[in-house]
Write a structure and sequence with these properties.
By secondary structure, the protein is mostly helical. Helices cover 62% and strands 0% of the residues. It contains five helices and no strands. Helix 2 runs antiparallel to helix 5 and helix 3 packs parallel to helix 5. The longest helix is centred in the middle third of the chain and has 31 residues. The model has no long low-confidence stretch (mean pLDDT 81). Keywords: Membrane, Transmembrane, Transmembrane helix.
């Protein structure tokens, strides 16, 4: 501690002045924690923002894939119901179709929430996306526990419908994005 109640690390270092210049205190460098958490509000950041590509004028590009992915998802609902019927009868058909339907509705809602957040403020995409995923998966887990504990005969087919539907709908979205990327980058 110095006589003024500060530690030597907190005291402002002083650069020896040139003969004709006044003494100018040197700002201490920010520590790791301060750098990670950001600067104080009174600090000025004069760094220029990076040049980003402009967004398209039409905001519908955010959900351009949604009608196709949703339609394919509903086709998978019908296919899941058919496969469930072939392997286990009407109850299994209902279970498999319900599993794929949960996935299709979940993907549709997630896409809409993320597109909304991007339109409102792009900085909301990550928090809104994470929130919708946490809520969606929590609801799916509660649904699975409720159905498993109920003893319903279509539960096993529904679990398979959820798993296979998630893989198939994700594959359709990945295919669409690869198609979109190849269209914009020849």
């Amino acid at each position: 501690m110095t006589e003024h109640g500060t530690t030597p690390a907190e005291a402002e270092p002083v650069v020896p002045p040139a003969p004709d210049q006044p003494v100018v205190p040197v700002q201490p460098r920010a520590g790791v924690v301060r750098t990670i958490l950001g600067r104080d509000e009174d600090d000025e950041d004069d760094r220029p923002l990076p040049d980003l590509a402009p967004l398209p004028a039409d905001p519908r590009w955010r959900i351009e894939h949604l009608p196709f992915v949703t339609a394919v998802g509903f086709a998978f609902v019908l296919c899941g119901g058919s496969v469930g019927f072939l392997f286990g009868g009407p109850v299994a058909a209902l279970g498999a179709a319900a599993g794929v339907l949960v996935v299709t509705v979940g993907v549709t809602i997630t896409t809409l929430v993320i597109a909304w957040a991007d339109v409102v403020r792009p900085a909301l995409v990550l928090p809104a996306g994470l929130a919708v995923y946490v809520i969606k998966y929590a609801l799916i887990v509660f649904l699975l526990f409720a159905i498993a504990s109920s003893g319903w005969d279509g539960a096993y087919a529904m679990f398979w419908g959820l798993g296979i539907g998630a893989v198939l709908v994700t594959a359709v979205q990945a295919w669409w994005l690869a198609r979109l990327a190849s269209r914009h980058n020849p």
